[in-house]
């Protein structure tokens, strides 16, 4: 989970505090995050596709104006989607440079910046120019307006120039839930994410609460690395994506709502199986599973500009189920630290095992490491023994440790 | 534990910490559990509650913000819209589906666009303007309607008591 929480007030202490308005507008009113796969309602309000679809299963109304609303009347907004994606990819850099600006001197340096960083930060200029128009109306910052038009065009042109032909497949990181190209995810990101989580696990919360923007500012160099997904996504031209959005070979039929009341268990199982979904759990579990999958599916294949494939949807479903299972209400950081511990154990376990046949074999640490397992084995063994005199138990206790090391 | 709920709560927390309205303070009770918040609400001026600081607990459901949180004053305070156990009964905390009192306007009810800040602000306005028509504490309703000075006296007394006088 990405704990570096962003919100519109991040901009209120920069040289262009008005940007927080823009930042508010591109957020979903349900999750308060930047809109993901935005959809438009007939009452002209915009929400994340997933958020609103989930809400509509409870209440067939628009959360904002309370007008009647049906899932089928949602329409995707490719342009808004790409505007937000391109904003998302530059937001950190934008915030960072605006913070720096304020340290140096206010206002004027913005123009210099756009001249200096002509290749990297061009998208920023694009974003600024939108805001600048707003500024004009508010009569606040007059000087910046001049470069806006020309550089806006520039950014358009150069993003065409920069476009990379590699259309990489994105997958969601299970830890920070950001999207990354699969290869980068497998090779580097997972490791980075895990280590970062465990390093920060202890002071994570303290750090993020009093000074929330710090995690973003303190990494001025890393913003150019593909760490937060921003860097990697820069390669994809949002303009191209939008222009090619008519390309609908990846679209699928929408999944229908199903009235499960009239179905028996095996019919439900069949339905799930036809979608390659797991069929364990109670009837209610399976129904919830289908219903959420239907939301994921329709949001992906009907609304997303670039649908992911079914296996990714199934992965999202699994992770959703895991996080909504009441028995599974552990803190996520705990799970991750457990994973790390297990991984560490794995290392030392292999190290120990390598020495198993030598004299170097460290019997004590081996016993220590598997103490729990040994105890469990003992308990099981004892349970299986029919009631017998206590003496045997005692003897057994004395032997346990060495005996078990041999077993293992 | 839902990711959406957690993220959203973190965002609300951050926004509250950066610029919250005067008279309210709120934050998670412990760092391990974002779903229980402690809140302090200041008694609004020009009301019997002026000068009081009231402690309340916000409990968020796992499917927040789809469902509203629950707000409970600890200890309970004397108010027509607060139950004896401290639970607050106002329309913003009721999901649109259930209407126990049958006369709440839909636009006053909970929807995901509401927020912790809005809840606490409505509670403050509830303190200054009780709604005796949908009373939660009938005794307090009657007292408020028929014997306002006595009601105010009792409130003042309990505030002084809570402040240690």
From TrEMBL, chain A:
GO terms for biological process: DNA damage tolerance; DNA repair; protein monoubiquitination. Residues 170-198 form the UBZ4-type domain. The keyword Zinc-finger applies. Its main location: nucleus. One of its GO terms (cellular component) is nucleus. Residues 394-408 have a biased composition (Polar residues). GO terms for molecular function: single-stranded DNA binding; ubiquitin protein ligase activity; zinc ion binding. Its EC number is 2.3.2.27. Residues 126-168, 204-237, 388-408 are annotated as: Disordered. It catalyses: S-ubiquitinyl-[E2 ubiquitin-conjugating enzyme]-L-cysteine + [acceptor protein]-L-lysine = [E2 ubiquitin-conjugating enzyme]-L-cysteine + N(6)-ubiquitinyl-[acceptor protein]-L-lysine. Pathway: Protein modification; protein ubiquitination. Residues 260-294 form the SAP domain. The keyword Nucleus applies. Keywords: DNA damage, DNA repair, DNA-binding, Metal-binding, Nucleus, Transferase, Ubl conjugation pathway, Zinc, Zinc-finger. Pfam families: SAP, zf-C3HC4_2. Residues 28-65 form the RING-type domain. Residues 148-159 have a biased composition (Low complexity). It is found in: Nucleus. Belongs to the RAD18 family. Interacts with E2 UBC2, forming a complex with ubiquitin ligase activity. E3 RING-finger protein, member of the UBC2/RAD6 epistasis group. Associates to the E2 ubiquitin conjugating enzyme UBC2/RAD6 to form the UBC2-RAD18 ubiquitin ligase complex involved in postreplicative repair (PRR) of damaged DNA. This is Postreplication repair E3 ubiquitin-protein ligase RAD18. The lineage of its organism: Eukaryota, Fungi, Dikarya, Ascomycota, Saccharomycotina.
UniProtKB/TrEMBL annotation, chain B:
GO terms for biological process: ERAD pathway. Residues 4-164 form the UBC core domain. SUPFAM superfamilies: UBC-like. SMART domains: UBCc (SM00212). The active site is at 89 (glycyl thioester intermediate). Pathway: Protein modification. It catalyses: S-ubiquitinyl-[E1 ubiquitin-activating enzyme]-L-cysteine + [E2 ubiquitin-conjugating enzyme]-L-cysteine = [E1 ubiquitin-activating enzyme]-L-cysteine + S-ubiquitinyl-[E2 ubiquitin-conjugating enzyme]-L-cysteine. It holds the Pfam family UQ_con. Keywords: ATP-binding, Nucleotide-binding, Thioester bond, Transferase, Ubl conjugation pathway. PANTHER family: UBIQUITIN-CONJUGATING ENZYME E2. InterPro entries: Ub_conjugating_enzyme (IPR050113), UBC (IPR000608), UBQ-conjugating_AS (IPR023313), UBQ-conjugating_enzyme/RWD (IPR016135). GO terms for molecular function: ATP binding; ubiquitin conjugating enzyme activity. Belongs to the ubiquitin-conjugating enzyme family. Its EC number is 2.3.2.23. This is E2 ubiquitin-conjugating enzyme.
